[in-house]
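Hi L.,

You mentioned the student needs an example of a multi-chain input paired with its predicted structure. This one should do, with 951 residues in total across all chains.
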Amino acid sequence: MKVDRRSFLSFVIGGAAGTALSPLPWKLIDDSSIWSQMWPWTPVPPDGEVVYEDSTCSLCPGGCGISVRKVDNRAVKIEGKKGHPVNDGGICILGLSGLQLLYGPTRIKTPMKRIGERGEGKWRKISWDEATVILTEKLTDIRNRGEAHTVAAIAESDSGTVPALLQRFMTAYGSPNFIRTSSQVDADELAVKTLFGATGRAGFDLENADYVLSFGAGLVDGWGSPVRMFRAGSLWKEKNVAVVQVEPRLSNSAAKATRWVPINPGTEADLALGIAAVLVSQNMVDTGGVSGFGSWKSDLLSNYPTQKVSQTTGVAADVIVDLAKGFAKADRPLALCGRGKGLVAGSLRETAAVYALNALAGNINRTGGMWAVPESDYIQWPKAATDKLASAGLRQPRIDGAGAGRYADSRYLPNRLADGVNGEGPYPLQVLLVAGANPCHDLPDSKNVRAAFARIPFIVSFSSFNDETSAMADLLLPDHVYLERYEDVPVGAGLARQVIGLSRPVVSAQFNTRHLGETVIAAARAMGGSIADAFPWPDYETCLEETLGEKWDTLMETGVWVENDIDPVADTVRLAGMDAPAIQAEGDVDRFPLLLVPYDSIRISGGTIGDPPFMIKTVADTVIKGKDGFVEVNPQTASAAGLTEGDMATLSTPRGEVRVRIHLFEGIKPGVAAMARGLGHTAYDGYLAEKGVNVNELIGPVEDPSSGHDAAWGIRAKLAKA
Amino acid sequence: MSTLDDKAKGVMDDDAAHAEGGEDTGAGGFIILFFIIGFAASMVLGWVVFPQFLYSQKQQPFSFNHALHVGEVGDGCESCHFFREDGSFSGIPKLAQCTECHEEPMGETEDEAIFVEQYVTRDREVPWLSYSRQPDCVFFSHVAHVVGAKMDCVTCHGHIGESESSRPYEYNRVTGYSRDIWGKNIAGFKRNSWDRMKMDDCAQCHKEAGIIHTSSVQTERDACFVCHK
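Structure written out for the whole complex:
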C-alpha cells in the first residue's frame, strides 16, 4: 500500500468532513465567543445581598451624610444620604471616590517601624503591642527627663472626640504643643472673637440670602461644605439671586456667578472696606447691631475713598459703587470670604472687613444672614489632672509661639512650626505626632518643612495612607479609614446651624490598623500615673457613647444630630480688627515681576487626602498633562516672555523654582500666574505621585500682623522659557 | 506534423496503458479508504477526544446531601435558597445560614466534620462551585420565573434536590464556566428541560409557553438588554 498524493488528499477531505460533522468547530466558536465577551480579567461586581449602610463622610470638613451600597461585605458604591441636613442626597467627587481609599493600594496595612534611612521606605512590620511599647517608652523617657514640652502633635481638627483625646493626651503628658492644621477656620474664629467678643464661628444662611457677594470664596470649587454649596448655587439660580464673585481669576465659581469682578490679587480687604465706605458715606447702613461705629466711620472714610480703593484693587470706581448699592438694596445680602476652599487661614483684616459688611447690612443672626454660632460643647470631660512633670511642661512656651506675645490672639500657628523646629523656637523638638494631617505636602515652603522634619529625631504618623509625611516617619501607627470606624463628626464649614454627624464602620477593618482613639487610650494606659487616670474609658466606643450622652441614641438612629435653633454668641458687632496693613506678596518686584496665586478646584483634593485615581482622571489636560503641571497666564504675559501654549517654562519665586508648562488663559489678569493647589505629590500611588507641581514648593507663609496666621495669598514670581 | 502526431499518440497510449496497468487497480478503493480513515479519525477526535480535553473537573469542598436536607427543612428548596426582601435571589446559602443549625456538628459523617472544622469554626465561607452559574453577560431574574411565572425549580435545575452527594464540578477550559450550561451532551441534544441552559433554551421555553415579550420595537420580541445587561 502506497500513500500517494491522492490518498493523502482524500484523508484530509475525509478529516474535514468528519470535523464539520463533529461538535468540535461549532463548540469552539461558541466557547471562544463566550470567552472573548467575558475576559477573565474584567472585574465583575460580586453577587450577593445588597444592603445600604449610613455613615458620615469625613474626607473634608463638609460633614455630608453618606449611604454606602454593599454587596454582602464588600462596599461597592458611596452615595449621598437622602434627607440629610447637610447634603440631602448629593455627593462630591471626592466622597464618591472614597472606596478607592478604603480598598486602594496606598493603605498602610499594619504598624511599622523604620529600619532604613529616613524616607527610604524600608520598614519592619511590628505588632500593636510592640508599637505601643516603642511609643510609650520613648515618650516616658523624654518626660522623665523633664522635657515633655518637646513633644508636639499636629492634627487636622481640634473638634470631636478623637482630636480631643489627642489634645487631652498632650495635656496630661505635659506638652503645650497641640497644633491644628491651617485653614480659614483660624481667621474665622479670630474674626468672630474680635467682632462678637466671644468664641464661636460664623455660619451663613446661604439658602435664604438674596444677594451674595463672594470675596474669592470658591462657591462651587469646594468652599465650606461643598455639596451644600452646589445645592445653594442651584437654589440661587432658581430664585434669580445675584451672585457676585470677586476674584483675580475666572474660576468655576466666577463663571457660574451672575457677575465676575476681576480684582488685583490680595486686595479683597480693600474692596470690602471700600464698599463699606460707600455704604457709610451714602447712608446705606443699618447701625442698629454695631458698636464703635463713630470712630470706625471716620477712619474708614478717610482711608478708603472710592478712587483710592479703585486704584488699589483695579476695580473701577463705578463698579465699587454699583456693588455697594446692590448690597445695600438687597433684603438679605451676604458677604463671604476665604479664598478658594479656604485652605489658608487668611488675615483678620480681610475676614473682619467682609463680616463687617454683613453687620452694616443689618444681616446678623437672622434668616438669610450671618450667624455667630457657638462652638459645640458636648465634650464635657473633667479637666485632666496634671502631675508635676506635666505642669512643668505645660508652663513652657509653644514651639510655634501661638497664644503668647505678638501671637497672643492665635491658638495654633502651623505655619510657624517649621521655623520653630529649624532654630527659631524656644527649644528643639524631640517627637512629633502627626494625626490626620500631611504637613510635608500641605504646609507652605516645602523645602523649609522638609529641613524641619529632618531635624526632628522621632516622628510618629497615624496616617492610614502612604503620604509624604508618613514617608518621613519613624513609626507608623495606622488609623482605620473613615469607612471602618466610629467617630463623631462635628460640622462647622459655614453652616448656620449646629450639626454633628456620626461616622460608623461600614465594613470591618480591612487590615491590621487601629482606631486612633484606641491608640491614644492604649498609650495613656500604658504610661500609667496621672496620664492613665485622665483616660478612664476602657475603649474608644465607650468614650464616644458616654461623651455624646443623650445625643448617642439620636445619632445611632438617624446618623446625625441637628440644632437649628441657634443661640448666637452675641448680637452686637464691635467694628474692629481692620486697621492692620494689607498683606503683601513676598518678593522683590524688579526680580519677580509676576504674581503667582494658587487656585483650588473641586477635582483636586486640597486637604490631607490626596486625589484618588477616579478623581485625578477628571483633571483637565490644561492642568496636568502626563507628569507636567501647568501654570495659567494671560496670553499677554506669555508673549512678553516669548511663551506659547504648552511651552515648557521655568517658574521661580523667592522660595523655589520648578519646571512647568504654559496654559494661556484669557480669564486671568495680565501679570498674574495661577497654579492648581493639591498636586505634586511624591507619595501615594502611581496615579497621583509625581504629577504636576506642589505649589507649596513655591510659596512661603506670610504672617498676618494681627495674629501670626498664614495670610499668604500668593508670591512674586518670574517666568522664563526653559 | 507526423512527428508531433506520433508523439501525441504515444502519450495517449502511455496514459491508457498506465490506467489499465495491474499495479494501479484498486486505487479508487484506497482513496475511499483514506477518506473513511480521515472521516472516522476526526469524528472520534471531535466526538470523543475533544470533550475530554475541553472539560476539566473539580471536586466540591465537601459532599452535600440535598435529599437529607430537604427532608429536614419545612419549606422545600426555598428554606435555604430563598428570595430576599428586595426580590433578589439568595442562591447558594452563606455560612451564616448554615450555622443557624450547624453551630455544632450534626451527625458523624466525614463531610460534616470537614464543614465544621474547616469553615464553621474558622468563620470562612464555603467556596461552593455553582453548577448553574450563567456567564456574567447574562442577567437572569429568579423572582420573575419562580414567583412571577410560578415555575418549579426542577424545570431548570432538575432533580438536584434529590441528590445524596455532590457530583464533580465540570468546567469548560476555554470559558471557565460550568459544563451544565452547554449540557452534558456535546452535540447539544437534550432530553429534559434542565439538560442545557443556553440562550436557545431560554427562547424555546418562552416560545412554547407563548411568552413573547415585545420590549424591542424593531423585532417585536424581547430586546437584547432584557437579559444581556
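You could point out the following to them. The radius of gyration of chain B is 30 Å. Residues 1-23 of chain B have pLDDT under 50 and may be disordered.

Best wishes,
N.
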